[in-house]
Automatic annotation (TrEMBL):
It comes from the Bacteria. It comes from Marinobacter aromaticivorans. The keyword Transferase does not apply. Residues 234-332 form the HTH araC/xylS-type domain. This is AraC family transcriptional regulator. It holds the Pfam family HTH_18. PROSITE patterns: HTH_ARAC_FAMILY_2 (PS01124). Keywords: DNA-binding, Transcription, Transcription regulation. InterPro entries: AraC-type_N, Homeodomain-like_sf, HTH_AraC, Tscrpt_reg_AraC-type_HTH.
Length: 339
């Protein structure tokens, strides 16, 4: 079970290309176990498992890893071929250089290019030609996949110092904080990710059998399920665990478990663009959404499971998170939302 959820926005954004080309997107949603009704709730979220499956359905149905949004079709298997080429690279720098060389074999080009300047390194988006990407989903995916693939290959998080975007802050801009875990800069002169150059010398630690295993669900999993253990946010989620019915550990205990001082941990969370309170709230929200999918649990049971002694407090909190009551949300998941 994955306790991470993905905003409705990304579900609709991922389908924009398919919709534009006349594919039956409602059928795609149903195959991924997502009720089209649920998406009429503005702040709805789906599980990362559902989102990962939806991505695979879109890629396979369209035979296009750019999901109908790119300047050309990128046939399914292109990403896997790139991975087969980079697995033999000695370092992260070699990975990013070779991945770029591979991507530029295709015209028009859709890629990220590694640039270095002093102590900084950055991956810069390079897309040639016209794209149909109304929600910036293809561009976001490109950044996320290259960053998380690199982190996976070297077995450690490539900590981002800054994420830049050459467009103005979109309505879903708040979600970017949970995706990139670093300061964000919109209306920039390019779309890029900046990190410390020292990561470039990190050795590739994965082998071919691991890569084959990884490719069974990637790049869909890279988009829907970040390796959260790589961030302080993820480590705190793991320490809190899934049993939210008992009192949650306090910040001082968490800091001690992570071998750091509360002051340092507070600063690190600020760098990741979040706070301890927000992590607890989002964990409760994600677990509540997960439990609502289990029909045998009553809404009062769920309230208790996610740490609310009063069902009315849970109703209020859930409405703040999603815009609707738990009951209306469950109806949406079942596809019974009143028109």
């Amino acid at each position: 079970m994955s306790d991470l959820t993905v905003s409705r926005h990304f579900v609709q954004a991922a389908l924009a290309g398919a919709e534009n080309l006349g594919f039956d997107t409602r059928q795609m949603l149903r195959e991924a176990g997502i009720s089209p009704d649920l998406l009429r709730i503005e702040m709805a979220r789906v599980s990362s498992d559902q989102f990962s499956l939806l991505m695979q359905i879109i890629w396979n149905r369209m035979d296009d890893e750019c999901m109908g949004m790119g300047p050309r079709r990128v046939r399914t298997g292109t990403f896997a071929t790139m991975c087969a080429l980079v697995i033999d690279c000695p370092t992260l720098e070699a990975v990013y250089r070779r991945a770029y060389q591979f991507s530029r074999l295709f015209e028009p080009m859709v890629t990220m290019k590694l640039e270095t300047d002093g102590a900084k390194a950055r991956l810069v988006k390079h897309i040639e030609g016209e794209i149909h990407d109304p929600h910036h989903f293809m561009q976001e995916s490109l950044l996320v996949i290259w960053h998380r693939l690199g982190s996976w290959l070297v077995g450690q998080p490539v900590e981002l110092e800054k994420a830049q975007f050459d467009y103005s802050r979109p309505p879903h801009g708040d979600e970017y904080r949970q995706i990139f875990h670093c300061p964000l800069e919109f209306e920039s002169d390019c779309t890029a990710l900046t990190f410390d150059k020292r990561f470039l010398s990190a050795p590739v630690i994965r082998d071919k059998p691991e890569m084959l295993q990884f490719l069974q669900t990637s790049p869909a999993d890279l988009l829907s399920r970040p390796d959260a253990s790589n961030t302080f946010t993820g480590k705190i989620r793991a320490l809190i665990g899934r049993d939210l019915s008992k009192p949650l550990p306090d910040f001082e205990w968490i800091a001690a478990e992570l071998h750091t001082s509360p002051q340092t941990l507070r600063r690190r969370l600020k760098q990741e663009n979040t706070s301890f309170q927000e992590i607890k709230d989002l964990l409760r929200r994600d677990m509540a959404i997960y439990f609502l999918g289990r029909q045998e649990l009553s809404i009062n049971d769920i309230a208790a499971k996610v740490g609310f002694t009063e069902p009315s407090t849970f109703h209020r909190a859930f409405k703040k998170w999603t815009g609707v009551t738990p009951g209306a949300y469950r109806e949406g998941e079942r596809g019974n939302l009143r028109h």
